[in-house]
Specification:
The protein is α+β, with helices and mostly antiparallel strands and 414 residues long. The chain is built from eleven helices and 21 strands. Strands 1, 2, 3, 4, 5, 6, 7, 8, 9, 10, 11, 12 and 13 form a 13-stranded mixed beta sheet that branches. Strand 10 and strand 11 form a beta hairpin. Helix 3 packs across helix 6.
Length: 414
């Protein structure tokens, strides 16, 4: 081949090179046409949001059906397939990611199905109750939030007066940009639908959170993709994206679910219902104290709240509630890059064993970290770190959008 090319006249050699380049360009154009769909015209972000809201109000869809892909790299590297609860976690599509389907009715009913070889995960919302069925363990969890009694029904006269104007949307965008970086509306396509995408990222004190992206149907205003990024990778840590989407009425039978025989049903209590049901004292349920002195007076242990931790200044001390018991929440630093320390009285005897088995152990064998006078369990993720240990009769739970080294430094300062 090299001898053949050397014998060609210069004019023919240039023609051959041009032909190769042209063929490559045509092939690239065809490939692009095959994998991309329609894109909407460029618009300012405020206009793109307003137009989608207006069109969605004027011509509401009667339902949404979609094939979806859920990506979860949050706990990659954690030993999920361990004994006990770890094996169940390894089978959960919520923790490992999966493909599946999604349905939304015009009344706001929701069904999400994530498929797994060891059993699908189904999530339902009927307007009142959230239900999740885990096929790998044949378990159904149901949660019904307490009614607030002052729900806002929005604009009900059909006039569209509930839709903010372009000026109002732009004003909100300006407020957001005082604290975060916000891109414009980028024309794109998702699942074959013309869409706009926007990215938001912390402008300061963001910790390991790199940002989030949202894409919505330019015509109907329906969200089609949501992704969360870490500063440690260019690919999403969490992503839920439609790959196919269609609009139309959905049968009520889609949202009807009967658990298989033998399913374990667990009713998840609202945050305050459990404490009241057990008749616990009001002192243990108070959660609004602020300031170190007030919180110290409300909890049955000595609050550990040094002035600085891991180079961060103490921000606030506030009362909290954990398992129906009074607790203390101490925060350090500002924004997402700060650290939160939740402290509560450690359980004794059998209760301690139950608490230990429940705290993060469902993820399997997690790294152990040696601390002064304690051994901590640590869960590192691309978006932050969680650590738990018990010392001196106090249970500590630390969390922050920081590296494991930073959280370990904080734990050693307690």
């Amino acid at each position: 081949m090299s001898n053949f090319l050397r014998r060609l006249p210069l004019s023919r050699l240039l023609f051959l090179c041009g032909a190769v380049v042209a063929i490559g360009a045509v092939a690239a154009a065809l490939a692009t046409a095959l994998v991309t769909g329609p894109t909407p015209p460029p618009k300012p972000l405020a206009d793109a949001i307003h137009d989608a809201l207006t069109e969605g109000h004027a011509n509401p869809v009667s339902g949404v059906s979609a094939r979806i892909v859920f990506t979860n790299h949050l706990i990659e590297g954690t030993s999920l397939a361990s004994q006990g609860g770890g094996a169940s976690a390894a089978a959960s599509p919520l923790l490992t990611g999966a493909s599946g389907r999604l349905w939304i009715s015009s009344e706001g009913k929701l069904r999400v199905e994530l498929q797994s070889e060891r059993g699908d995960t189904e999530i339902f919302y009927d307007g009142h109750t959230v239900s999740m069925y885990d096929g790998s363990s044949n378990s159904l969890y149901r949660y019904t939030p307490q009614e607030s009694g002052d729900a806002d029904n929005g604009s009900s006269d059909g006039s569209g007066h509930g839709i903010p104007t372009v000026a109002e949307i732009q004003e909100a965008i300006v407020k957001v940009m005082r604290h975060a970086n916000l891109s414009g509306a980028t024309p794109t396509d998702v699942a074959g639908q013309a869409a706009y995408a926007v990215r938001i990222s912390p402008s300061h004190d963001g910790g390991l959170v790199g940002g989030a992206e949202l894409a919505w149907d330019a015509t109907h205003g329906i969200p089609l993709r949501l992704a969360v990024y870490s500063t440690q990778s260019a690919t999403p840590v969490l992503e839920l994206s439609a790959t196919e989407v269609s609009y139309g009425a959905i049968s009520d039978s889609v949202f009807t679910f009967t658990p298989p025989p033998g399913a374990k049903v667990t009713e998840v209590e609202p945050p305050h219902a459990g404490a009241h049901a057990r008749g616990e004292g009001s002192k243990q349920s108070v959660t609004h104290e602020q300031g170190l002195a007030a919180v110290q007076a409300a909890v049955p242990f000595t609050v550990d709240a040094p002035g600085t931790l891991a180079g961060m200044t103490r921000d606030e001390v506030r009362g909290a509630q954990l398992n129906g018991q009074a607790a203390a929440l101490v925060t350090y630093g500002k924004g997402l890059g700060g650290i939160a320390v939740l402290q509560s009285k450690a359980k004794a005897g059998e209760e301690a064993g139950s608490q230990e088995s429940g705290a993060l152990s469902f993820l399997g064998d997690l790294p152990k970290v040696a601390l002064p006078g304690a051994s901590a369990t640590e869960l590192p993720t691309p978006l932050g770190t969680i650590m738990r240990f018990e010392r001196g009769g106090v249970d500590y739970l630390l969390a922050g959008s920081v590296t494991p080294a930073t959280l370990q430094d904080a734990a050693k300062g307690l």
